[in-house]
Specification:
2 domains; 14 helices
Length: about 400
């Protein structure tokens, strides 16, 4: 059994999550876990480092087979080996596809609130984000398909970025929902780029549906971004894949990735991915159970101690999307206040678009003692904010 309660100190290691914070602050913002990665991955990296030569690298057959086997056994989807392309990361792949599959000033469709870097990948490349807001009720978020159809009918839209499972709201899209997205996109001549980086972080007993697996329509129009980085906490190793089953579309994506020089692995990217998918399954299942218990703990704590903050129902990711509208519609101000008052660092929701101004995103992927510390800081910060607002 893995002891997820014991985590190393990450300060002073160049950690974005920790070293961007002041001493005494507790970061629960960026989607980065505090746990060491699976032992099998560390062993593979140590063996590669012991070789001592770190020249240019190829992508061996073992890398392709590891992806194919993992998605077949874990997700019930058999990918064609030929459809896989190595990439240094999901975000570089998204940005490359935006550049290659659209033209300047065209619109890229996104369903908000959504991962904030989607906006960067669109705006920084001279394109225009077209928000199609998700619907929300007591059961969480959903899709307004009439609104989606209207958005897709815009002749300036040729690409949609789908988040599956969805960050930050924690939705696992159903096969039926994905099929409807695929049919609408096909009818409007739109390519769907599906970011599936969170696919392996689902609650125990829950499974995600790969977009490309749903139908022939989805298969023909899909570009899927995959990686072991989120599930195994190895984002710093720059290892990911893009799966494009349709040959003509695949050639465009391949050209884009190679033109941008993000299709060649470093000396550790391949061995880490292979070790994760070949030997990391048992560790990942233990992690998912630990994260689920963290989620249940947070939900109980908020219900009992901070009822003003309402969690969004979630079945995936290690993130909680907290509705703070009972306190404020400016959670940027709320997050700044809580950080100054308690040292807790959270993600304000406005950066995710849509109704994000009412929300805060919290990262639960920490040792339980640290999580309890964070929840206590959140409670104190909310209390102090409410008092200050009433004065």
């Amino acid at each position: 059994m893995t002891d997820f309660d014991n985590v190393p100190c990450r300060r002073g290691t160049g950690s974005l999550k920790w070293d961007e914070c002041r001493e005494g602050e507790l970061p629960m913002w960026v989607a980065d876990m505090d746990f060491p990665t699976a032992p099998a991955i560390r062993q593979a990296l140590e063996a590669r480092a012991a070789h001592g030569v770190f020249g240019y690298n190829t992508v061996p057959d073992a890398w392709y087979q590891a992806y194919v086997d993992w998605w077949r056994t874990r997700h019930g989807f058999t990918m064609d080996r030929e459809g896989l392309i190595f990439c240094t990361g999901v975000v570089p792949a998204i940005s490359s596809c935006v550049r290659k599959l659209t033209t300047p000033a065209e619109k890229v469709l996104i369903q908000t609130p959504v991962y904030n870097i989607f906006f960067n990948s669109i705006l920084n490349n001279g394109r225009v984000p077209l928000e199609c807001p998700l619907t929300r009720d007591g059961a969480g978020y959903g899709i307004d398909f009439d609104a989606l159809d209207r958005a897709m009918s815009d002749p300036q839209v040729s690409l949609m970025i789908l988040c599956n499972p969805h960050n930050p709201v924690g939705r696992i899209w159903s096969r039926e929902e994905l099929a409807r997205i695929g049919e609408l996109a096909r009818s409007h001549g739109i390519t769907v780029l599906s970011d599936e980086i969170h696919c392996d972080i689902t609650d125990p007993g829950e499974a995600y549906v790969p977009f490309a697996s749903v139908s022939e329509a989805c298969r023909q129009i899909s570009v899927t971004c995959l990686a072991p980085t989120k599930a195994f906490n190895i984002a710093g190793l720059q290892t990911a894949a893009v799966y494009v089953p349709e040959p003509h579309l695949r050639h465009k994506v391949w050209r884009g990735l190679n033109t941008d020089e993000v299709a060649e692995p470093n000396s550790f990217a391949v061995c880490a991915a292979v070790a994760a998918f070949e030997k990391g399954g048992p560790w990942l299942d233990e992690l998912r159970e630990y994260l689920y218990q963290n989620k249940l703990l947070a939900l109980r704590y908020l219900s009992d101690r901070v009822p003003e903050v309402r969690p969004t129902p979630s079945r995936a990711t290690y993130l909680l999307w907290l509705d703070c509208s009972a306190l404020t519609h400016d959670t940027g101000r709320l997050c700044a206040f809580i950080r100054e008052e308690t040292g807790l660092v959270l993600s304000p929701g406005a950066q995710f678009g849509g109704d994000g101004g009412d929300f805060v995103r919290v990262n639960l992927a920490a040792a339980r003692e640290s999580l309890l510390d964070g929840l206590g800081r959140l409670e104190r910060g909310v209390r102090a904010f409410a008092e200050a607002s009433n004065q």
